[in-house]
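Collaboration report, partner site 2.

Our partner group contributed sequences for two proteins of shared interest, and the home lab folded both. The records are reproduced in the order in which they were received, starting with the first partner submission.
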Amino acid sequence: MSHVIDRMATRGIERLLASVGDCLTPEVAERLVALRAEPDVQARIDELADLANHGRLTQDEREEYEAYVRTITFISLLQARAKRLLNGQRKP
């Protein structure tokens, strides 16, 4: 996916997630902000990232890595919405 298309998709996802963010309770937002990959999943992502950085991904690995990147982007956008909700609630 080109960087321009990726940025456009990210902006579109952000807009779609605006409604989801409105549904978050503070408790759910806190859990979402704390969400991290399980160690074995993170290890696989790190392995694929290293292979990608050295230009050694197979086509299957590239597809797997891109799926992780898309998912991480999605989760990161949700987490950003959750952080904004929590920061807004903590202000006097």
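Second partner submission, folded after the first:
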Amino acid sequence: MVTPVVTLFLQALSRSAAAAIELLGTAFGGIVVSDCFSAHNNLPTQQRQLCWAHVIRDLTAISERPGATAELGMELLDLPQQLFAPMVPLQKRHDRLIQVGAELLADPQSV
């Protein structure tokens, strides 16, 4: 779970729908990012986002099949790359700001 202040990661002994409901409660109003596991099927589709790493892994597997399926897989694999390409400069800027912040914390006198 993510809020402006905290991110919660929980590991349970079970990946059941009951475990998901126990974590989220029955009145959860946020969005869950997850794989395609059926335990999340109780959530409305408007509250579910598939994990991009899982989507890309599945599309990669499709692109490695023979014939026309591979061609389709390669075309589909291009879509996430197009979607995320504009984010690369932002990620680099973010990483640099984190680095500068860490350096300032390590040596406040350097300012």
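Feedback sent to the partner group on the second submission included the following. The chain has a mean pLDDT of 86. The chain has four helices and two strands.
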